[in-house]
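Hi all, long-time lurker, first post. I run a small reading group and we've been trying to get comfortable going from sequence to structure in the token notation. Rather than ask abstract questions, I figured I'd post a concrete chain and ask someone more experienced to write out its structure so we can walk through it together at our next meeting. Sequence below, copied exactly:
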Amino acid sequence: MPKKGQPTQQQLTPGTEEKMVPKPESYNPEYKAAGKFENKVVVITGGDSGIGKATAIAFAAEKAKVAIIYNSSDEDALKTKNIVESFSTTCFLVKGNIDEKSFCEEAVQQIVEEFGKIDVLINNAGEQHPQKDIRDISEEQLQKTFQTNIFAMFFMTQAVLPQLKKGSSIINTASVTAYKGSEHLLDYSSTKGAIVSFTRALSQNLAKEGIRVNAVAPGPIWTPLIPSTFPEEKVEKFGTDTPLGRAGQPYEVAPAFIFLASDDASYITGQTIHVNGGTVVNS
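-- Answer (accepted) --
Happy to help. Here is the structure in token form:
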């Protein structure tokens, strides 16, 4: 018998950690920080909850100043800000829609005014809308999924790039679905495949400037996206089909972002780290 996943539950999109059972685990108290990002500024889209939240906390533990761009959940954002600042650093919140290029430009301007610079960009925000049949994917849904998941990465990168310099880093959140597909996430999987290609192409484009570009491709991770988009029966079994037999926790993904953004990964660009519970994708 497979290991039990989570209790049956559903939320309205975009979902919130407050209503999840059990709550996602965003920080590993046994994590050994080394001050890798002291005096660095890290920007994280979708940093209010889930993988983005865990990544913000991990960077805070490494003494980075963190800017979080989020869309709607003030409660989650404020809780994340408080946790980040408990590490004796600063967290700056910017609320808005990264689907809009003008907002991305305004958000970056606010962050630079607050911190004076940007060293790392984490393009993490995303959305998904499961459908059983490709014919059920409306034009509106298709445009929205691509606008949020890949267009926004272009907009944020375009806005942040003038602030980056040699040694800076961009990390994009892809997905295991980019490599193995997902029968009910056709548009989402397509955007994640685009993110992998975007990462590879951008890494070549920026290599001469000494700016590294990589990606992290999570598998099933227990975040608000899951109970707010999947039916109860899928939530209950979520992640149990991985070789490790369970869904991952957000804190288990965050170290991949830390590594790729750090000087420890100074010879790594255009690559993807797979944090997926053991699924072999051979790419």
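A couple of things your group might point at:
The chain has a mean pLDDT of 91.
The chain is about 35% helix and 15% strand.
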